[in-house]
Amino acid sequence: MLELFIAKRMYRANDGEKEVSRPATLIATAGIAIGLAVMIIAVAVVIGFKKEVKDKIVGFGSDIQIANLDAVRSYETLPVAVDEDFMTTLLAKPEITHVQRYSTKPGIIKTDDAFQGMVLKGLGAEFDPSFFTKHLQEGVLPAFSDTVASNQVLISRSFATKLKLKLDDRIYTYYFQDNNVRARRLTVCGIYETNFSEYDNLFLLSDIYTVNRLNGWKGDQVSGLELRVANYNQLEDITYALGDELSGRSDEFGELYFVRNIEQLNPNIFGWLAVLDFNIWIILILMIGVAGFTMISGLLIIIIERTNMIGTLKALGANNYTIRKIFLWFAVFLIGKGMLIGNAIGLLFYVVQSQFGLFKLDPANYYMDTVPVYLNVWVFLLLNIGTLLVSVLMLLAPSYLITRINPAASMRYE
Questions:
Q1: Distance, CA of 32 to CA of 55 (rounded, Å)
Q2: How far apart, in whole angstroms, are the C-alpha atoms of residue 349 and residue 343?
Q3: Which residues are within 8 A (CB) of 86 and not within 5 positions of it... i.e. 6 or more apart?
Q4: Where along the chain do its domains lie?
């Protein structure tokens, strides 16, 4: 193809041939490289931050919760009855991958020097410990059981620091029940830290048997069920499908079931995360705009410098469309070089940060101690394809300058 051949010769011009203005090409290439690198880094950080926050919220409360309908309108912990058949029916659904029971009891920890409000969360033998195992710093997880009290408790690092607790310490916890105060002495068997202060400063984990006895519940009564879904993108559809299925259904004690997902339980946090999507679109638009305008400037300079060549080509019979394609192909080569450099910079940052965590954060404000990064192949490809297409499209209008060049006048142009 003639246009591609001439564009390659222009791009490779050196030594004996007239070289294209180097400052213009360098600026254009640098604009694309910096723009794409910033976009890759920004998208990786925002996606990583959202994923990290979401994973921590889901780690504490799972994707979907089934609880007592009256508990939504009450500050008290109200039970629903859950038997093995109910759990088996839920787990048989292909969209649900895990089901576990939980029970909660608000209370107070008291030491010789201080006291702290908390929620004791009890879990059964079916509990998936992977999240807390990942964030466990010292000790072991409690023995989660629904038949025997372990008298063990897993506490957060923030609780341990505030109350000066360490492994194997015995702590006194107090709970209000029917206008009476009930006490339990528990042993610290493990310390975890997620840096998610809203939950680190709230939950202590123990066995469900202990919590159910503190609540005075009967039989299969628990605070509710926590469900994991196979595809988080279908969370809303699954929630409403379960809600319709359990609508009006009551347990053996006449308590109604109520279904809510993690986003409905934490609207403020997920609303804040949604704002980040808007911010990333602003960054993408600005970076593509900067990269595009540097390419436009570079192309205009190159066209002006090559006015003599354009006149010669027109005199030899080349039409405006053919000459425009030559310069657009030349621009694609520059864009491609800039994209290669930008990808190298962006991926280098991604690998270094994900492996070594060089850039730190204040966990008190950001829920994590290092800048998180996450990038999948599809997002990476979309960024590259989008950058290439938008940059080329932005060059179509400036390339029309070629149609205004007169062959006779261009021969005298120096």
A1: 34
A2: 10
A3: none
A4: 2-56+269-411, 79-254
SS3 content of the chain, % helix, strand, coil (to 5): 55, 20, 25
Contacts of 355 (CB under 8 A, 6+ apart): none
d(C-alpha 51, C-alpha 261), whole Å: 17
Which helix (H) or strand (E) segment holds residue 80: the answer is strand 80-81
| pLDDT values of the chain reduced to their tens digit, one per residue, 414 residues | 777 777 777 776 643 444 556 777 788 888 889 989 999 999 999 999 999 999 999 999 899 999 988 877 665 788 999 988 899 999 999 999 999 999 999 999 988 888 889 999 999 999 999 999 999 999 999 999 888 888 999 999 999 999 999 999 999 999 987 778 888 999 999 999 998 888 898 999 999 999 999 998 887 899 999 999 999 999 999 999 999 999 888 888 888 999 999 999 998 888 888 888 888 888 888 888 888 888 888 777 777 777 777 777 777 777 777 878 888 888 888 888 899 999 999 999 999 999 998 898 888 778 888 899 998 899 999 999 988 888 888 888 777 777 666 665 555 555
Strand 224-229 with 96-110, pairing: antiparallel
Sign of CA dihedral 271, 273, 279, 284: negative
- Residue 260: is it exposed, middle or buried by C-beta count within 10 angstroms (0-12/13-18/19+)? middle
Q: Are 410 and 310 in contact (CB under 8 A)?
A: yes
Structural element, H or E, at residue 365: helix 363-366
Which residues lie below 8 Å from residue 278, measured CB to CB, with a gap of 6+? none
103 contacts 120 by C-beta, under 8 angstroms: no
Q: If you ran DSSP here, which 8-state letter would residue 12 be given?
A: T
Retrieve residue 341's tokens: 């450099």
Cβ neighbours for 193, distance < 8 A, ≥ 6 positions apart: 135, 137, 156, 157, 158, 200
Are 229 and 167 in contact by the 8 Å Cβ rule? The answer is no
